[in-house]
Amino acid sequence: MILSDFERAVLAGTLGNAGERMAMELVVESARLLGAQRLVEIHSSHIDGCLYHGDSGTLYCEKLASEGARVKVPATTNVGALNLLKPQQCRLSPAQRKMAYRLMVAHETMGCLPSWTCAPYQAGARPALGQQVAWGESNAVAFINTVLGARSNRYGDFLDIACAISARAPDYGLHRPEYRYATLLIDLCGLSVRLRRQSAFYPVLGALIGRLAGASIAAVTGIPADATEDQLKALCAGAASTGALALVHLVGVTPEAPDLPTAFGGKAPESTIKITRDMVIQARDSLSLATSGPIDSVAIGSPHCSRDECRELLRLAQGRAFCVPVYLCLGRHTLMALQTDATDRALLALGVELVVDTCVVVTPILPATPGVMMTNSAKFAHYASGNTGHLPIFGSLPDCVASAQQGRVVWDQAIWS
Amino acid sequence: MTLHSEVLLSGSAQGEVLRFDAPISFWGGIDPTSALVTLAGHPQHGQCITNTILVIPQLIGSSSSSAVILELFYTHKAPRALLLGARDAILPIGAITARQMGWAHIPVLVLPDPDLWSGDWVSIDTDGMITKH
To answer: Could you say which of A33, A51, A57 has the minimum Cβ distance to residue B70?
Structure first.
Protein backbone atom coordinates (compact mmCIF):
# COMPACT_ATOMS: atom_id res chain seq x y z
CA MET A 1 0.00 0.00 0.00
CA ILE A 2 1.22 3.48 -0.85
CA LEU A 3 0.93 5.88 2.09
CA SER A 4 1.85 9.57 2.16
CA ASP A 5 4.52 10.90 4.54
CA PHE A 6 1.75 12.43 6.65
CA GLU A 7 -0.17 9.15 6.88
CA ARG A 8 3.01 7.24 7.79
CA ALA A 9 3.93 9.76 10.47
CA VAL A 10 0.50 9.61 12.12
CA LEU A 11 0.59 5.81 11.94
CA ALA A 12 4.06 5.73 13.50
CA GLY A 13 2.99 8.11 16.28
CA THR A 14 5.59 10.74 15.37
CA LEU A 15 2.87 13.20 14.32
CA GLY A 16 -0.40 13.83 16.14
CA ASN A 17 -1.83 12.28 19.30
CA ALA A 18 -2.57 8.69 20.31
CA GLY A 19 -6.24 8.99 19.32
CA GLU A 20 -5.28 10.07 15.81
CA ARG A 21 -2.88 7.13 15.64
CA MET A 22 -5.66 4.68 16.62
CA ALA A 23 -7.95 6.13 13.95
CA MET A 24 -5.28 6.06 11.22
CA GLU A 25 -4.41 2.47 12.14
CA LEU A 26 -8.06 1.42 11.74
CA VAL A 27 -8.35 3.18 8.36
CA VAL A 28 -5.06 1.75 7.04
CA GLU A 29 -5.80 -1.77 8.31
CA SER A 30 -9.28 -1.64 6.74
CA ALA A 31 -7.74 -0.46 3.47
CA ARG A 32 -5.34 -3.41 3.57
CA LEU A 33 -8.21 -5.86 4.24
CA LEU A 34 -10.24 -4.41 1.36
CA GLY A 35 -7.32 -4.55 -1.03
CA ALA A 36 -7.06 -0.76 -1.47
CA GLN A 37 -3.75 0.54 -2.84
CA ARG A 38 -3.91 3.88 -1.05
CA LEU A 39 -6.12 6.20 1.00
CA VAL A 40 -8.30 8.93 -0.46
CA GLU A 41 -8.76 12.34 1.21
CA ILE A 42 -12.35 12.98 2.22
CA HIS A 43 -14.34 16.19 2.72
CA SER A 44 -17.06 15.13 5.16
CA SER A 45 -18.45 12.25 7.17
CA HIS A 46 -21.77 11.15 8.58
CA ILE A 47 -21.24 9.05 11.69
CA ASP A 48 -23.43 6.01 12.36
CA GLY A 49 -21.34 4.78 15.30
CA CYS A 50 -23.16 7.01 17.82
CA LEU A 51 -25.98 4.45 18.14
CA TYR A 52 -25.51 2.34 21.26
CA HIS A 53 -25.13 -1.42 20.70
CA GLY A 54 -23.35 -2.22 23.97
CA ASP A 55 -20.89 -0.72 26.42
CA SER A 56 -17.85 -1.66 24.31
CA GLY A 57 -18.66 0.89 21.61
CA THR A 58 -18.98 3.63 24.22
CA LEU A 59 -15.64 2.68 25.76
CA TYR A 60 -13.93 2.61 22.34
CA CYS A 61 -15.20 6.06 21.34
CA GLU A 62 -14.40 7.49 24.78
CA LYS A 63 -10.87 6.13 24.40
CA LEU A 64 -10.49 7.88 21.03
CA ALA A 65 -11.81 11.11 22.55
CA SER A 66 -9.69 10.96 25.72
CA GLU A 67 -6.55 10.24 23.67
CA GLY A 68 -7.17 13.51 21.87
CA ALA A 69 -8.80 12.46 18.59
CA ARG A 70 -10.89 15.19 16.94
CA VAL A 71 -12.62 15.09 13.57
CA LYS A 72 -10.74 16.91 10.80
CA VAL A 73 -13.69 17.19 8.40
CA PRO A 74 -17.31 18.26 9.02
CA ALA A 75 -18.95 15.20 10.59
CA THR A 76 -22.69 15.02 11.26
CA THR A 77 -24.16 12.45 13.65
CA ASN A 78 -26.74 9.81 12.80
CA VAL A 79 -29.46 8.86 15.28
CA GLY A 80 -28.49 7.87 18.79
CA ALA A 81 -30.44 5.52 21.05
CA LEU A 82 -32.04 8.40 23.00
CA ASN A 83 -34.35 11.31 22.37
CA LEU A 84 -32.17 13.85 24.16
CA LEU A 85 -35.11 16.24 24.44
CA LYS A 86 -37.26 13.55 26.14
CA PRO A 87 -34.97 10.79 27.49
CA GLN A 88 -37.76 8.89 29.28
CA GLN A 89 -39.41 8.22 25.89
CA CYS A 90 -37.28 5.11 25.38
CA ARG A 91 -37.37 2.14 27.70
CA LEU A 92 -33.65 1.39 28.05
CA SER A 93 -32.47 0.45 31.55
CA PRO A 94 -30.88 3.32 33.52
CA ALA A 95 -27.43 1.74 32.99
CA GLN A 96 -27.94 1.39 29.22
CA ARG A 97 -29.37 4.89 28.98
CA LYS A 98 -26.28 6.28 30.70
CA MET A 99 -23.91 4.46 28.34
CA ALA A 100 -25.99 5.43 25.26
CA TYR A 101 -25.77 9.05 26.43
CA ARG A 102 -22.02 8.81 27.05
CA LEU A 103 -21.57 7.48 23.50
CA MET A 104 -23.40 10.50 22.08
CA VAL A 105 -21.34 12.86 24.28
CA ALA A 106 -18.07 11.23 23.15
CA HIS A 107 -18.96 12.08 19.54
CA GLU A 108 -19.65 15.69 20.50
CA THR A 109 -16.31 15.78 22.37
CA MET A 110 -14.58 14.66 19.17
CA GLY A 111 -16.09 17.65 17.38
CA CYS A 112 -18.99 16.05 15.52
CA LEU A 113 -21.91 18.29 14.60
CA PRO A 114 -24.77 17.00 16.79
CA SER A 115 -27.40 16.59 14.07
CA TRP A 116 -28.74 13.20 15.35
CA THR A 117 -30.57 12.51 12.13
CA CYS A 118 -30.58 9.83 9.44
CA ALA A 119 -31.45 12.49 6.83
CA PRO A 120 -28.52 14.90 7.33
CA TYR A 121 -28.75 15.76 3.63
CA GLN A 122 -32.01 17.55 4.52
CA ALA A 123 -30.33 19.32 7.44
CA GLY A 124 -27.75 21.16 5.36
CA ALA A 125 -25.07 18.48 4.92
CA ARG A 126 -25.03 18.05 1.15
CA PRO A 127 -21.77 16.83 -0.38
CA ALA A 128 -21.12 18.10 -3.90
CA LEU A 129 -21.04 16.20 -7.19
CA GLY A 130 -17.86 14.13 -7.40
CA GLN A 131 -16.82 14.92 -3.82
CA GLN A 132 -15.08 12.13 -1.86
CA VAL A 133 -16.73 11.54 1.53
CA ALA A 134 -16.99 8.73 4.11
CA TRP A 135 -20.57 8.38 5.23
CA GLY A 136 -22.43 5.86 7.34
CA GLU A 137 -26.18 5.07 7.55
CA SER A 138 -27.25 3.11 4.50
CA ASN A 139 -30.08 5.41 3.34
CA ALA A 140 -27.87 8.48 3.57
CA VAL A 141 -25.03 6.82 1.65
CA ALA A 142 -27.46 5.72 -1.07
CA PHE A 143 -28.97 9.22 -1.24
CA ILE A 144 -25.70 11.14 -1.57
CA ASN A 145 -24.33 8.75 -4.21
CA THR A 146 -27.60 8.50 -6.15
CA VAL A 147 -29.14 11.97 -5.89
CA LEU A 148 -26.11 14.21 -5.25
CA GLY A 149 -23.36 12.31 -7.08
CA ALA A 150 -20.99 12.33 -4.08
CA ARG A 151 -18.69 9.33 -3.59
CA SER A 152 -18.88 7.06 -0.58
CA ASN A 153 -19.02 3.39 0.28
CA ARG A 154 -21.22 2.27 3.16
CA TYR A 155 -19.12 2.99 6.26
CA GLY A 156 -20.13 1.58 9.60
CA ASP A 157 -19.26 1.45 13.24
CA PHE A 158 -15.80 2.78 14.18
CA LEU A 159 -14.47 3.05 10.62
CA ASP A 160 -16.78 6.03 10.04
CA ILE A 161 -15.40 8.04 12.96
CA ALA A 162 -11.85 6.84 12.18
CA CYS A 163 -12.19 8.22 8.64
CA ALA A 164 -13.48 11.55 9.98
CA ILE A 165 -10.53 11.81 12.41
CA SER A 166 -8.00 10.85 9.73
CA ALA A 167 -9.73 12.80 6.91
CA ARG A 168 -8.98 9.66 4.88
CA ALA A 169 -10.84 6.59 3.62
CA PRO A 170 -9.65 3.41 1.88
CA ASP A 171 -9.51 4.13 -1.87
CA TYR A 172 -11.74 1.36 -3.21
CA GLY A 173 -15.27 0.70 -4.49
CA LEU A 174 -17.47 3.74 -5.09
CA HIS A 175 -14.60 6.16 -4.44
CA ARG A 176 -13.22 5.07 -7.81
CA PRO A 177 -15.03 6.10 -11.02
CA GLU A 178 -14.53 2.72 -12.70
CA TYR A 179 -16.62 1.03 -9.98
CA ARG A 180 -19.55 3.44 -10.31
CA TYR A 181 -20.99 2.15 -13.58
CA ALA A 182 -24.25 0.22 -13.74
CA THR A 183 -24.35 -3.42 -14.82
CA LEU A 184 -28.08 -4.16 -14.44
CA LEU A 185 -30.91 -2.35 -16.24
CA ILE A 186 -34.29 -1.99 -14.52
CA ASP A 187 -37.04 -0.66 -16.80
CA LEU A 188 -40.18 0.94 -15.31
CA CYS A 189 -41.74 1.97 -18.61
CA GLY A 190 -44.34 -0.81 -18.43
CA LEU A 191 -45.92 0.81 -15.37
CA SER A 192 -48.64 3.46 -15.58
CA VAL A 193 -47.42 7.04 -15.23
CA ARG A 194 -50.10 7.50 -12.58
CA LEU A 195 -48.56 4.77 -10.41
CA ARG A 196 -45.08 6.19 -10.94
CA ARG A 197 -46.23 9.48 -9.45
CA GLN A 198 -47.61 8.06 -6.19
CA SER A 199 -45.46 8.79 -3.15
CA ALA A 200 -46.20 5.29 -1.78
CA PHE A 201 -44.71 3.81 -4.96
CA TYR A 202 -41.18 4.99 -4.15
CA PRO A 203 -40.41 3.02 -0.97
CA VAL A 204 -41.90 -0.09 -2.60
CA LEU A 205 -39.83 0.43 -5.74
CA GLY A 206 -36.77 0.90 -3.53
CA ALA A 207 -37.40 -2.39 -1.74
CA LEU A 208 -37.81 -4.10 -5.12
CA ILE A 209 -34.60 -2.56 -6.54
CA GLY A 210 -32.65 -3.59 -3.43
CA ARG A 211 -33.76 -7.21 -3.81
CA LEU A 212 -33.05 -7.29 -7.55
CA ALA A 213 -29.69 -5.51 -7.40
CA GLY A 214 -28.27 -6.84 -4.12
CA ALA A 215 -24.77 -5.37 -4.03
CA SER A 216 -24.54 -4.57 -7.75
CA ILE A 217 -25.29 -1.23 -9.39
CA ALA A 218 -28.54 -0.88 -11.30
CA ALA A 219 -29.69 1.81 -13.71
CA VAL A 220 -33.43 2.54 -13.60
CA THR A 221 -35.33 4.06 -16.52
CA GLY A 222 -38.79 5.56 -16.22
CA ILE A 223 -38.48 7.59 -12.99
CA PRO A 224 -40.46 10.82 -13.54
CA ALA A 225 -38.01 13.71 -13.90
CA ASP A 226 -40.02 15.72 -11.37
CA ALA A 227 -39.90 13.09 -8.59
CA THR A 228 -39.59 14.99 -5.30
CA GLU A 229 -36.60 14.80 -3.01
CA ASP A 230 -38.74 13.10 -0.35
CA GLN A 231 -39.78 10.46 -2.90
CA LEU A 232 -36.14 9.83 -3.86
CA LYS A 233 -35.24 9.68 -0.17
CA ALA A 234 -37.85 6.93 0.35
CA LEU A 235 -36.59 5.02 -2.70
CA CYS A 236 -32.96 5.11 -1.53
CA ALA A 237 -33.90 4.02 2.00
CA GLY A 238 -35.95 1.08 0.73
CA ALA A 239 -33.24 -0.05 -1.68
CA ALA A 240 -30.47 0.18 0.93
CA SER A 241 -32.57 -1.82 3.42
CA THR A 242 -33.26 -4.85 1.23
CA GLY A 243 -29.97 -4.70 -0.67
CA ALA A 244 -26.32 -4.05 0.10
CA LEU A 245 -26.20 -1.39 -2.60
CA ALA A 246 -25.06 2.21 -2.10
CA LEU A 247 -25.77 3.68 -5.56
CA VAL A 248 -28.65 3.39 -8.03
CA HIS A 249 -28.46 5.27 -11.32
CA LEU A 250 -31.89 6.87 -11.74
CA VAL A 251 -31.60 7.87 -15.36
CA GLY A 252 -32.44 11.56 -15.77
CA VAL A 253 -32.16 12.18 -12.01
CA THR A 254 -28.74 10.91 -10.92
CA PRO A 255 -26.10 13.46 -11.99
CA GLU A 256 -23.86 10.70 -13.36
CA ALA A 257 -26.72 9.15 -15.36
CA PRO A 258 -28.09 11.71 -17.83
CA ASP A 259 -28.62 8.80 -20.23
CA LEU A 260 -28.13 5.03 -20.38
CA PRO A 261 -24.78 4.92 -22.19
CA THR A 262 -23.28 7.22 -19.54
CA ALA A 263 -24.74 5.13 -16.69
CA PHE A 264 -23.25 1.94 -18.17
CA GLY A 265 -19.92 3.51 -19.13
CA GLY A 266 -20.57 2.75 -22.79
CA LYS A 267 -21.04 -0.98 -22.19
CA ALA A 268 -24.18 -3.04 -22.65
CA PRO A 269 -26.20 -4.06 -19.56
CA GLU A 270 -25.34 -7.56 -18.32
CA SER A 271 -29.06 -8.13 -17.76
CA THR A 272 -32.35 -6.27 -18.09
CA ILE A 273 -35.46 -6.56 -15.91
CA LYS A 274 -38.77 -5.08 -17.01
CA ILE A 275 -40.84 -4.24 -13.95
CA THR A 276 -44.50 -5.23 -14.11
CA ARG A 277 -47.37 -4.08 -11.93
CA ASP A 278 -47.52 -7.58 -10.43
CA MET A 279 -43.90 -7.26 -9.30
CA VAL A 280 -44.72 -3.93 -7.65
CA ILE A 281 -47.75 -5.41 -5.86
CA GLN A 282 -45.68 -8.38 -4.72
CA ALA A 283 -42.94 -6.06 -3.42
CA ARG A 284 -45.58 -3.95 -1.64
CA ASP A 285 -47.15 -7.03 -0.02
CA SER A 286 -43.73 -8.33 1.06
CA LEU A 287 -43.45 -5.28 3.33
CA SER A 288 -46.45 -6.40 5.40
CA LEU A 289 -46.58 -9.24 7.91
CA ALA A 290 -50.20 -8.47 8.80
CA THR A 291 -52.92 -7.43 6.37
CA SER A 292 -56.10 -6.29 8.09
CA GLY A 293 -57.85 -5.68 11.38
CA PRO A 294 -56.90 -3.52 14.36
CA ILE A 295 -53.56 -1.74 14.57
CA ASP A 296 -51.61 -0.78 17.69
CA SER A 297 -49.45 2.04 16.37
CA VAL A 298 -48.36 4.02 13.32
CA ALA A 299 -44.71 4.88 12.67
CA ILE A 300 -43.71 7.61 10.20
CA GLY A 301 -40.27 8.96 9.43
CA SER A 302 -37.61 6.52 8.28
CA PRO A 303 -35.68 8.32 7.01
CA HIS A 304 -36.55 11.24 9.28
CA CYS A 305 -39.45 13.33 7.96
CA SER A 306 -38.92 16.62 6.23
CA ARG A 307 -41.02 19.66 7.11
CA ASP A 308 -43.11 19.05 4.00
CA GLU A 309 -43.88 15.48 5.09
CA CYS A 310 -44.89 16.64 8.59
CA ARG A 311 -47.17 19.28 7.12
CA GLU A 312 -48.70 16.72 4.77
CA LEU A 313 -49.47 14.49 7.75
CA LEU A 314 -51.18 17.41 9.47
CA ARG A 315 -53.14 18.32 6.34
CA LEU A 316 -54.35 14.76 5.78
CA ALA A 317 -55.58 14.47 9.39
CA GLN A 318 -57.97 17.41 8.88
CA GLY A 319 -58.10 17.98 12.62
CA ARG A 320 -59.41 14.49 13.47
CA ALA A 321 -57.46 13.01 16.38
CA PHE A 322 -55.70 9.66 16.31
CA CYS A 323 -56.88 6.76 18.43
CA VAL A 324 -53.58 4.80 18.36
CA PRO A 325 -50.12 6.24 19.05
CA VAL A 326 -48.59 7.87 15.95
CA TYR A 327 -44.80 8.08 16.21
CA LEU A 328 -43.37 10.80 13.98
CA CYS A 329 -39.58 10.55 13.74
CA LEU A 330 -37.68 13.67 12.78
CA GLY A 331 -34.49 15.59 13.32
CA ARG A 332 -34.15 18.69 15.47
CA HIS A 333 -33.66 20.79 12.34
CA THR A 334 -37.17 19.84 11.25
CA LEU A 335 -38.65 20.26 14.73
CA MET A 336 -37.29 23.81 14.84
CA ALA A 337 -38.82 24.52 11.45
CA LEU A 338 -42.18 23.18 12.65
CA GLN A 339 -42.02 25.36 15.76
CA THR A 340 -41.87 28.55 13.69
CA ASP A 341 -45.53 28.20 12.70
CA ALA A 342 -46.77 25.98 15.56
CA THR A 343 -47.13 22.92 13.31
CA ASP A 344 -45.53 20.91 16.13
CA ARG A 345 -48.30 21.91 18.55
CA ALA A 346 -51.00 21.08 16.02
CA LEU A 347 -49.47 17.63 15.54
CA LEU A 348 -49.20 17.05 19.30
CA ALA A 349 -52.86 18.04 19.68
CA LEU A 350 -53.85 15.23 17.30
CA GLY A 351 -52.00 12.76 19.50
CA VAL A 352 -48.73 12.55 17.59
CA GLU A 353 -45.66 11.47 19.58
CA LEU A 354 -42.62 13.37 18.28
CA VAL A 355 -39.50 11.20 18.26
CA VAL A 356 -36.42 13.42 17.95
CA ASP A 357 -32.71 12.43 17.70
CA THR A 358 -33.56 8.73 17.31
CA CYS A 359 -36.21 6.47 15.78
CA VAL A 360 -38.55 3.66 16.76
CA VAL A 361 -36.71 0.68 15.20
CA VAL A 362 -33.32 1.34 16.83
CA THR A 363 -34.40 1.80 20.45
CA PRO A 364 -37.43 0.62 22.48
CA ILE A 365 -40.11 3.29 22.05
CA LEU A 366 -43.02 1.41 20.43
CA PRO A 367 -45.59 -0.07 22.86
CA ALA A 368 -43.92 -2.67 25.12
CA THR A 369 -46.39 -5.37 24.08
CA PRO A 370 -45.68 -6.30 20.45
CA GLY A 371 -48.63 -5.60 18.18
CA VAL A 372 -49.33 -4.38 14.66
CA MET A 373 -47.50 -1.28 13.43
CA MET A 374 -48.58 0.52 10.28
CA THR A 375 -46.01 2.54 8.34
CA ASN A 376 -45.39 4.25 5.02
CA SER A 377 -41.66 3.47 5.26
CA ALA A 378 -40.10 0.44 3.57
CA LYS A 379 -37.20 0.67 6.02
CA PHE A 380 -39.45 0.60 9.09
CA ALA A 381 -41.38 -2.29 7.52
CA HIS A 382 -38.13 -4.18 6.83
CA TYR A 383 -36.70 -3.87 10.35
CA ALA A 384 -39.83 -3.73 12.53
CA SER A 385 -40.33 -7.39 13.36
CA GLY A 386 -36.67 -8.28 13.91
CA ASN A 387 -35.81 -5.22 15.98
CA THR A 388 -39.05 -4.56 17.86
CA GLY A 389 -41.28 -7.64 17.62
CA HIS A 390 -44.07 -5.53 16.09
CA LEU A 391 -45.66 -6.80 12.86
CA PRO A 392 -45.54 -4.20 10.07
CA ILE A 393 -48.28 -3.25 7.65
CA PHE A 394 -47.19 -1.03 4.79
CA GLY A 395 -49.54 1.68 3.51
CA SER A 396 -49.46 5.13 1.93
CA LEU A 397 -49.32 8.19 4.20
CA PRO A 398 -53.09 8.80 3.65
CA ASP A 399 -53.68 5.11 4.56
CA CYS A 400 -51.61 5.53 7.72
CA VAL A 401 -53.52 8.67 8.75
CA ALA A 402 -56.96 7.10 8.13
CA SER A 403 -55.92 3.90 9.92
CA ALA A 404 -54.64 5.85 12.93
CA GLN A 405 -57.95 7.68 13.12
CA GLN A 406 -60.02 4.47 12.95
CA GLY A 407 -57.71 2.15 14.86
CA ARG A 408 -57.81 -0.47 12.13
CA VAL A 409 -56.29 -0.96 8.69
CA VAL A 410 -57.75 1.33 6.03
CA TRP A 411 -56.25 0.73 2.62
CA ASP A 412 -56.92 2.63 -0.60
CA GLN A 413 -56.14 0.06 -3.30
CA ALA A 414 -56.97 2.47 -6.13
CA ILE A 415 -53.55 4.16 -6.08
CA TRP A 416 -51.85 0.90 -7.09
CA SER A 417 -53.36 0.59 -10.57
CA MET B 1 -5.09 -32.88 7.47
CA THR B 2 -3.89 -29.32 7.00
CA LEU B 3 -5.44 -26.38 5.12
CA HIS B 4 -3.75 -23.15 4.09
CA SER B 5 -5.74 -19.95 4.52
CA GLU B 6 -5.12 -16.29 3.75
CA VAL B 7 -4.28 -14.32 6.89
CA LEU B 8 -6.24 -11.10 7.41
CA LEU B 9 -5.25 -10.80 11.08
CA SER B 10 -2.59 -13.10 12.40
CA GLY B 11 -2.90 -15.16 15.57
CA SER B 12 -3.03 -18.69 16.87
CA ALA B 13 -6.00 -20.59 18.28
CA GLN B 14 -7.44 -24.03 18.78
CA GLY B 15 -10.95 -25.23 19.39
CA GLU B 16 -14.09 -26.79 17.99
CA VAL B 17 -15.49 -25.65 14.67
CA LEU B 18 -18.96 -24.12 14.40
CA ARG B 19 -19.92 -23.67 10.77
CA PHE B 20 -22.74 -21.37 9.64
CA ASP B 21 -24.76 -23.29 7.04
CA ALA B 22 -26.59 -20.15 5.88
CA PRO B 23 -25.59 -16.48 5.50
CA ILE B 24 -25.92 -14.27 8.54
CA SER B 25 -25.49 -10.66 9.65
CA PHE B 26 -24.09 -10.42 13.18
CA TRP B 27 -26.28 -7.35 13.73
CA GLY B 28 -29.79 -8.73 14.04
CA GLY B 29 -28.53 -12.33 13.83
CA ILE B 30 -26.48 -12.81 16.98
CA ASP B 31 -27.44 -11.56 20.42
CA PRO B 32 -24.51 -9.45 21.71
CA THR B 33 -25.28 -10.28 25.36
CA SER B 34 -25.63 -14.08 25.09
CA ALA B 35 -23.60 -14.84 21.90
CA LEU B 36 -26.50 -17.04 20.75
CA VAL B 37 -27.67 -17.16 17.12
CA THR B 38 -31.09 -15.51 17.28
CA LEU B 39 -31.95 -15.20 13.59
CA ALA B 40 -35.26 -17.03 13.17
CA GLY B 41 -35.01 -19.92 10.73
CA HIS B 42 -31.19 -19.98 10.62
CA PRO B 43 -29.79 -23.57 10.70
CA GLN B 44 -27.59 -22.66 13.70
CA HIS B 45 -30.41 -20.88 15.54
CA GLY B 46 -29.96 -21.24 19.30
CA GLN B 47 -26.26 -22.21 19.15
CA CYS B 48 -23.62 -20.24 21.04
CA ILE B 49 -20.56 -18.92 19.14
CA THR B 50 -18.41 -18.31 22.24
CA ASN B 51 -14.96 -19.97 22.09
CA THR B 52 -15.65 -21.61 18.73
CA ILE B 53 -13.54 -21.60 15.58
CA LEU B 54 -16.27 -19.88 13.62
CA VAL B 55 -16.53 -20.76 9.91
CA ILE B 56 -18.61 -18.20 8.02
CA PRO B 57 -18.79 -19.10 4.32
CA GLN B 58 -21.25 -16.27 3.58
CA LEU B 59 -21.67 -13.05 5.49
CA ILE B 60 -24.38 -10.46 5.03
CA GLY B 61 -22.76 -7.14 5.66
CA SER B 62 -24.65 -4.96 8.09
CA SER B 63 -21.94 -2.53 9.14
CA SER B 64 -23.24 -2.55 12.73
CA SER B 65 -21.91 -6.10 12.94
CA SER B 66 -18.51 -4.57 13.85
CA ALA B 67 -20.12 -3.26 17.04
CA VAL B 68 -21.76 -6.61 17.85
CA ILE B 69 -18.51 -8.56 17.64
CA LEU B 70 -16.60 -5.88 19.59
CA GLU B 71 -19.19 -6.29 22.36
CA LEU B 72 -18.56 -10.07 22.36
CA PHE B 73 -14.81 -9.48 22.74
CA TYR B 74 -15.46 -7.06 25.61
CA THR B 75 -17.66 -9.56 27.48
CA HIS B 76 -15.30 -12.52 26.75
CA LYS B 77 -17.97 -14.24 24.67
CA ALA B 78 -16.28 -14.04 21.25
CA PRO B 79 -15.16 -16.92 19.03
CA ARG B 80 -11.47 -17.98 19.20
CA ALA B 81 -10.98 -17.47 15.45
CA LEU B 82 -12.96 -16.31 12.42
CA LEU B 83 -12.67 -18.10 9.10
CA LEU B 84 -14.41 -16.06 6.41
CA GLY B 85 -15.47 -17.21 2.95
CA ALA B 86 -14.30 -13.97 1.33
CA ARG B 87 -12.33 -10.82 2.15
CA ASP B 88 -14.43 -8.43 4.18
CA ALA B 89 -13.73 -5.58 6.58
CA ILE B 90 -16.77 -5.55 8.86
CA LEU B 91 -15.92 -8.35 11.31
CA PRO B 92 -12.15 -7.70 11.12
CA ILE B 93 -12.85 -4.08 12.16
CA GLY B 94 -14.39 -5.50 15.35
CA ALA B 95 -11.27 -7.65 15.84
CA ILE B 96 -8.87 -4.72 15.20
CA THR B 97 -10.70 -2.43 17.62
CA ALA B 98 -10.66 -5.22 20.24
CA ARG B 99 -6.86 -5.44 19.82
CA GLN B 100 -6.55 -1.67 20.16
CA MET B 101 -8.48 -1.83 23.44
CA GLY B 102 -6.37 -4.75 24.66
CA TRP B 103 -9.46 -6.96 25.02
CA ALA B 104 -8.62 -9.83 22.67
CA HIS B 105 -6.32 -10.95 19.90
CA ILE B 106 -7.77 -13.59 17.57
CA PRO B 107 -6.84 -14.76 14.08
CA VAL B 108 -9.11 -13.75 11.18
CA LEU B 109 -8.56 -15.87 8.07
CA VAL B 110 -10.02 -16.28 4.58
CA LEU B 111 -10.68 -19.68 3.01
CA PRO B 112 -13.59 -20.16 0.59
CA ASP B 113 -15.76 -23.21 1.29
CA PRO B 114 -13.28 -25.00 3.59
CA ASP B 115 -13.50 -28.71 4.39
CA LEU B 116 -14.28 -27.87 8.00
CA TRP B 117 -17.51 -28.90 9.70
CA SER B 118 -19.24 -28.29 13.00
CA GLY B 119 -17.67 -30.55 15.62
CA ASP B 120 -14.21 -30.73 13.97
CA TRP B 121 -11.33 -29.96 16.35
CA VAL B 122 -8.68 -27.72 14.75
CA SER B 123 -5.59 -25.69 15.59
CA ILE B 124 -4.51 -22.56 13.73
CA ASP B 125 -0.98 -21.14 13.58
CA THR B 126 0.15 -17.57 12.94
CA ASP B 127 0.80 -18.28 9.23
CA GLY B 128 -2.80 -19.30 8.64
CA MET B 129 -2.12 -23.05 8.60
CA ILE B 130 -5.17 -24.94 9.90
CA THR B 131 -4.63 -28.48 11.23
CA LYS B 132 -7.63 -30.78 11.65
CA HIS B 133 -7.18 -33.28 14.49
So the answer is: A57
